[in-house]
Amino acid sequence: MVLAELGGRISRALQQMSNATVIDEDVLKECLNEISRALFSADVQFKMVQNMQANIKKIVNLEELAAGHNKRRIIQEAVFNELCNMLDPGKPAFVPKKGKPNVIMFVGLQGSGKTTTCTKYAYYYQKKGWKPALVCADTFRAGAFDQLKQNATKAKIPFYGSYTETDPVKIAQEGVDTFKKESCDLIIVDTSGRHKQEAALFEEMRQVAEVTKPDLVIFVMDSSIGQAAFDQAQAFKQSAAVGAVIVTKMDGHAKGGGALSAVAATKSPIIFLGTGEHMDEFEVFEVKPFVSRLLG
Ligand code: GDP
C-alpha cells in the first residue's frame, strides 16, 4: 500500500471511531486495530506498530477520562502525535553554517537517487545564496562522474572528479581541499553505492569519511523499499556517522514503512524529500505538516 492510501485509511479509521455514539474500549480497540492493519500494509515494522498501540493506550485511558472529556479529540491527537513521534528521532540534524566550509557526505545504495539528490541539495542551497560544490568520489560505477558532471553543469555548480584516478579516497580528499581553497561553503561528496562486496563498500565509505571529516553524513533511500530500509539504513549507520536521511521518489510508490524504518534505524531525522527527477523537485521535510497532509 502506498503512502497516500495509508493516510486515507488511518483517517477513515479515526472518522469511524468519531461516528460511534459511545466511545468505549471496543470502539477504541477496533480503531487502533484498523490503524495497525493500515501500517502493516504500508510495510511498517511490527515492533513499531506494537509500540504505537501501547503508547496510545497509555495516553487514552478511557476509564480515567471523566465524562465530558472530548475522547474523540484526545484519541485523534494521540494518533497524530504517535505518527509524528515515529518520524521524529528527537534530535535535529546538523545545520550547515554559512561562511564555513561545511562538508556533507552522501551515502546510500546504488539506484536510491543519491547522485540526483546531491545536485538537488546543492541547487537548493545555491538558490539561497550559498556557494556549493560537488565532488564525485564514486569510481566504481562507470558513468557516475559523467552523471554528476552533467547535473552540476546544468545547475552551474562547480564539480570535481576524475576519469583516470581509481582511488575514491584520493579524489574525495583532493576535491574537498580544492573547494576549501575556493571558499565554497557547502562541499558535497557523492560516494559509491555498490561494490563487488558489501564489506568493500563500507570500508571505502569509512575511509572517505576519515579523510574528508564530514560535518554531516546523509543517508539517501528510495521510499518504495518499505521496511527493508531498516537493515539497509542500520548497515550504513554502522560504517558512517549518518546524521540525516533524505527519502527519494516520493512521487512514485512510496511506502510509509521505509521512511519510518530509516528514522528508527539511524536515529536521524529526515531533512528533505525527493519528489521527482528534476532538480527543483525537492522539499524540506517537516514532521507535523507532513503527517497533517498525510491524514488529509
Ligand atoms: P544513485 O545510483 O543512487 O546515484 O541514483 P541516481 O541519482 O542515478 O538515480 C536513480 C534514478 O532515480 C534516476 O533515474 C533518477 O532520475 C531517479 N530519481 C532520483 N530521485 C528521484 C525522485 O525523487 N523521484 C523520481 N521519480 N525519480 C528519482
Automatic annotation (TrEMBL):
The UniProt entry lists the main location of this chain as cytoplasm
Query: Where's it found, cell-wise?
Result: Cytoplasm; Endoplasmic reticulum
Q: Does the keyword GTP-binding apply?
A: yes
A biological process term (GO) from this entry: SRP-dependent cotranslational protein targeting to membrane
Domain SRP54-type proteins GTP-binding span(s) in chain numbering: 269-282
Q: Which GO terms describe its cellular component?
A: endoplasmic reticulum; signal recognition particle, endoplasmic reticulum targeting
GO MF annotation, one: GTPase activity
> Is Nucleotide-binding among the key words of this record?
yes
Q: Which reaction does it catalyse?
A: GTP + H2O = GDP + phosphate + H(+)
Keywords of the record, alphabetical order, are: Cytoplasm, Endoplasmic reticulum, GTP-binding, Hydrolase, Nucleotide-binding, Ribonucleoprotein, RNA-binding, Signal recognition particle
In UniProt terms, what function does this protein have? Component of the signal recognition particle (SRP) complex, a ribonucleoprotein complex that mediates the cotranslational targeting of secretory and membrane proteins to the endoplasmic reticulum (ER). As part of the SRP complex, associates with the SRP receptor (SR) component SRPRA to target secretory proteins to the endoplasmic reticulum membrane. Binds to the signal sequence of presecretory proteins when they emerge from the ribosomes. Displays basal GTPase activity, and stimulates reciprocal GTPase activation of the SR subunit SRPRA.
Q: How does it assemble?
A: Component of a signal recognition particle (SRP) complex that consists of a 7SL RNA molecule of 300 nucleotides and six protein subunits: SRP72, SRP68, SRP54, SRP19, SRP14 and SRP9.
Write out the domain note.
The NG domain, also named G domain, is a special guanosine triphosphatase (GTPase) domain, which binds GTP and forms a guanosine 5'-triphosphate (GTP)-dependent complex with a homologous NG domain in the SRP receptor subunit SRPRA. The two NG domains undergo cooperative rearrangements upon their assembly, which culminate in the reciprocal activation of the GTPase activity of one another. SRP receptor compaction upon binding with cargo-loaded SRP and GTPase rearrangement drive SRP-mediated cotranslational protein translocation into the ER. The M domain binds the 7SL RNA in presence of SRP19 and binds the signal sequence of presecretory proteins.
Q: Which family does it belong to?
A: Belongs to the GTP-binding SRP family. SRP54 subfamily.
Protein name listed in UniProt: Signal recognition particle 54 kDa protein
Origin species, per record, is Riccia sorocarpa
Organism classification, top ranks? Eukaryota, Viridiplantae, Streptophyta, Embryophyta, Marchantiophyta
Q: Which span of the parent protein is shown here?
A: 1 to 296 of 494
